[in-house]
Amino acid sequence: xxxxxxxxxxxxxxxxxxxxxxxxxxxxxxxxxxxxxxxxxxxxxxxxxxxxxxxxxxxxxxxxxxxxxxxxxxxxxxxxxxxxxxxxxxxxxxxxxxxxxxxxxxxxxxxxxxxxxxxxxxxxxxxxxxxxxxxxxxxxxxxxxxxxxxxxxxxxxxxxxxxxxxxxxxxxxxxxxxxxxxxxxxxxxxxxxxxxxxxxxxxxxxxxxxxxxxxxxxxxxxxxxxxxxxxxxxxxxxxxxxxxxxxxxxxxxxxxxxxxxxxxxxxxxxxxxxxxxxxxxxxxxxxxxxxxxxxxxxxxxxxxxxxxxxxxxxxxxxxxxx
Length: 322
Fold this sequence. Notes:
Elements: H1 2-5, H2 11-25, H3 48-72, H4 82-92, H5 102-119, H6 126-143, H7 151-160, H8 166-189, H9 193-202, H10 216-239, H11 245-267, H12 276-290, H13 296-321
Helix pairs in contact: 2-4, 3-4, 3-5, 3-12, 4-12, 5-6, 6-8, 7-8, 7-11, 10-12, 10-13, 11-12
């Protein structure tokens, strides 16, 4: 039922996706996770409800964008909403993810980065495409500096797509450094460079707390999402030999992306909201897995239970607050 429903791209599916986002994100207007707002937009310091609306809109457009990437490159089937649906589930599963945070903006540019990565396969201007990928990654790193290490992911993608233009490996570095050049130049001009460098260096401290969850449902949903994604990874690995060369390359790049992003997110210290960045590569893998699954009955039951648990995780705190 659920799987078959999102296999097509009719407008009713889009309406349902909007409804799901509203259901999962609106409760944080009333009972923020952890009873505090994790990040305040400078221009909207006291309008928490408006911050939440901005976060929802940006999150939803990111879901649509990554869905376009998955459908265009046939990872989750042509004209489907699988990638968007599973991005919304993975990105909304935990209560603290559905709040305004810098990673809401970071994950949007992360989707742009993924688009450029997949475009490397058939690009006639691969040097320019690699520069654009590096530029998008540089913007992501402004919100999460350890993302700079994903330069290795760009190189892995170039190797997977068998790019033989050596300048593409170099222009990826140049593109990645461009945002930092302008940011550091601006702070140097206003004599704020030491503060920025301190923030930059602190972001590379190693993580000490691995499971910083305070609610049992958060632990359950994190475990459920992780195990489901791992199942999808091994299923995709088992089917690689049956794919054509183009789909096989995209699948391998998706797997490399998930592994690279997971290592960075779990290795370096950051607020737990950084897990939102993992939702994007995970959604591509989950979309590819569920679009090719055969036993729809059990898959539908599982996904419905997943949605129900997320719903409870967001609405139970409302009753406790009352």
